[in-house]
Write a structure and sequence with these properties.
Blueprint (H helix, E strand, L loop, with lengths): L2 E9 L3 H12 L15 E8 L2 E8 L5 H9 L3 E9 L2 H13 L4 E7 L2 E6 L1 H4 L3 E7 L26 E10 L2 H12 L5 E2 L2 E3 L4 E6 L8 E8 L2 H10 L3 E3 L2 E4 L2 E7 L2
Helix pairs in contact: 1-6
Length: 257
């Protein structure tokens, strides 16, 4: 069984200001805009980060799930952890464990060669957990949500970026780690508040008094950290040493060794 972190989704009140910040500060290029999400009252963009993806969505209609989440959070922020699994059997096994743990299925869909199952964020506290299967099972190639294979032409080869960790805030991080671990499966190698996926880690951290449980941060391996920080300062997106904030999300920058 393989569970691979393939995409992170952020949510914003307005899409284009976030697109501008991600493009200018991190040097990311938009690889896809999915017209299908309009049926859910949303617009979106996807950026390739290494062989994975960063998505940003924004509501364009009233009373969307994303809009209600923004109201609860009170700001832009992280929204969804999207995984790619190695088989439909793995996908169904994880779904079955979620149901057994009384985690609701928020939405699921199946198309030719691809399917997804989204687990409800109210039951998982910090974020949606999305389980996706692509029949090509290519963790470096075809990815249906990014439009297939054309995304590779939008990679910034000169300044590569790799997504290595996701930070999730919880009222009880030990208990929430246990819940996510039980759903994702016993073969996942982990510590008390960390779950190791095939290519990344999910880290669960205690909320502070003023914080709302959410997908709070991403750790990125970068080659040009000083340049990124300089550009972030100019746009008032720097927050601490080696840390910037875009779309209400903390980006922790680490240099490739």
């Amino acid at each position: 069984m393989t569970v691979h972190l393939r995409q992170i989704c952020l949510v914003a009140r307005e899409l284009e200001p976030v697109v501008e910040q991600l493009s200018h500060i991190l040097g990311l290029q938009v690889c896809h805009r999915d017209s299908v999400v309009r049926q859910y009252g949303l617009e979106n963009v996807l950026f390739p980060i290494g062989t994975d993806f960063l998505e940003v969505i924004a509501p364009i209609e009233d009373n969307t799930a994303a809009g209600r989440y923004l109201n609860r959070l009170g700001r832009n922020g992280g929204y969804m952890v999207i995984t790619q699994v190695d088989s439909e059997e793995t996908q169904q096994a994880i779904k079955a464990r979620a149901i057994e743990a009384r985690v609701r299925i928020a939405h699921e869909e199946k198309r030719d060669g691809w399917s997804f199952c989204q687990l409800h964020p109210a039951d998982l506290e910090a974020a949606f957990l999305d389980l996706e299967f692509d029949e090509e099972v290519d963790y470096q190639g075809c990815w249906y949500p990014a439009g297939g294979r054309s995304w590779r032409q939008f990679l910034n080869e000169d300044n590569p970026i790799q997504l290595t960790e996701v930070e999730l805030l919880a009222t009880d991080p030990v208990a929430l780690t246990r819940l996510w671990r039980n759903i994702l499966g016993p073969s996942i190698d982990d510590s008390e508040c960390t779950i190791k996926l095939a290519n990344s880690r999910l880290n669960f951290r205690q909320t502070m008094e003023t914080e709302y449980p959410c997908l709070n941060g991403l750790t990125l391996m970068v080659r040009n950290k000083d340049d990124i920080l300089s550009r972030a300062i100019k746009l008032d997106c720097d927050r601490a040493d080696n840390q910037i904030e875009i779309c209400g999300t903390q980006f922790y920058l680490r240099s490739f060794e």
